[in-house]
Amino acid sequence: MSADSLTRREFVGTATGVAAGAVLAVTPARGIEAPAVHIRPAGRNAAVASGNGLRAVGKVGELLAQGVDTLDAAVEGVKIQELDPEDTSVGYGGLPNEEGVVQLDASCMHGPSRRAGAVACLEGIKTPSVVAQYVLLYTNHILLVGEGAKRFALSYGFKEEDLLTEKSRQAWLRWRANRGTADDWLPVADTEQMVARPTGTINCNVVNAKGEVSSVTTTSGLAWKIPGRVGDSPIIGAGQYTDPDVGAAGSTGRGESNIKVCGGFLTVEFMRRGMKPTDACLETLKRVVAMTEQRLLDERGRPTFSLNFYAINKNGEFGSASLFPGRDGPPTYAAFDGQTAALHDCAVLYDRRA
Ligand code: ASP
After folding, report:
1. Which of 199, 201, 278, 284 is catalytic?
2. pLDDT per position as a tens digit, 62-99
3. Atom of ligand 1 nearest to the CA of 198
4. Does 52 contact ligand 1 (Cβ within 6 A)?
5. Whole-number average pLDDT of the chain
6. Cα(112) to centroid of ligand 1, in Å?
7. Is 16 one of the catalytic residues?
8. Going along 72-145, which residue ranges are E strands?
9. Which of 199, 216, 235, 262 to mutate to test the pocket of ligand 1 (most atoms within 8 A of CB)?
10. What is the pLDDT of residues 121-135, one digit of tens each?
11. Can you tell me the distance from the alpha carbon of 54 to that of 65, in angstroms, rounded to the nearest whole number?
């Protein structure tokens, strides 16, 4: 996008003849609006997602071309991961809590209707993103949790199923056996080091040619979490956020660190002030570092956890940033640019972990 497609929203003074040196009060030209850099739609479809979202953004591209709504397309995209037993970070086959129970979190926002929906600690339903969308579509509420969220889903005909696959159960058993030496579980061989707590989630943010925006995030959350723990994914403004005038953003990684900076919202706000999506993601990561407690910082003041942000503006520009590169280089994120779905390198805040 060229710089001149970003133009300052016009403001008008409220008074004439203000004394020299006085602060001129300003009012938006049209009604009550957040002061913003105005981002015009570029007339193309686009999507950005976490690195496990290549199939999701491909699906979104196909659906947008058929005129499908941005949120419907985003949910169809992330459903691919939710239903995939091999993705142990999302939906069916997700890694369970410390008691071996899979508890899922999801949220979504729909720009055109300015609505939001979410579920947290949902058990037994494979597609929490769809349940979150039902909360958005059919209720006066935004967030349903636990047993209530499950009953809500069952009332719409969702099936209750066992979400723990053999693969996830075996990983949980290895973690339980190895998590400490002072308990009654005897250690077992574990090449995958489940004690390191694998993380994962899918976030997908979508814009269509008309400039309509939506976002969704869905996850099984932090592996081995305390039962009842809710991460950032179902928190509107943290796990994902859509502003119909600006764009959308979302996150994967250590949810507690994102919740404290309202990272989805903050990233969108940085774009509102004129930042490109990648810069907005990096700026949010800086805020995360500033808000990190000492016990989670290494001796060089760098976080000991991982966190990623993904963002798209109404113009269809997208980007992503992570705290650190991985062992084999920068982490990747998935994007659809109007033509093709591909993986791209994330920007990184630090060139390496300490
Ligand atoms: N953000 C998720 C959570 O904290 C986990 C993840 O993305 O790895 O629940």
Report:
1. 201
2. 999 999 999 999 999 999 999 999 999 999 999 999 99
3. 8
4. no
5. 89
6. 27
7. no
8. 104-110, 115-122, 143-145
9. 199
10. 999 999 999 999 999
11. 17
Distance of CA 255 from the midpoint of ligand 1 (Å): 5
Please count the structural domains in the chain: 1
- Evaluate if residue 33 carries a pLDDT over 70: no
State pTM to two decimals.
0.89
Is 6 among the domain residues? Answer: no
CA contacts within 13 A on the Cβ side of 184: 0
Output the domain CATH number for residue 339. 3.60.20.30
Residue 2 clears pLDDT 70, i.e. is over it:
no
Q: Which domain holds residue 259?
A: 46-348
> How far apart are the CA of 256 and the centre of ligand 1, in A?
8
Across the chain, the runs of DSSP E, i.e. the strands, are 6-8, 11-13, 26-28, 37-39, 46-50, 104-110, 115-122, 143-145, 202-207, 213-219, 240-243, 247-253, 307-313, 318-322, 332-336, 341-345, 347-348
SS3 category, 201: coil
Is the minimum distance from the CB of 87 to ligand 1 under 6 angstroms?
no
Average pLDDT over residues 259-273: 98
The verdict on the CB of residue 263 being under 6 Å from ligand 1 is no
Residue 21 lies in a domain: no
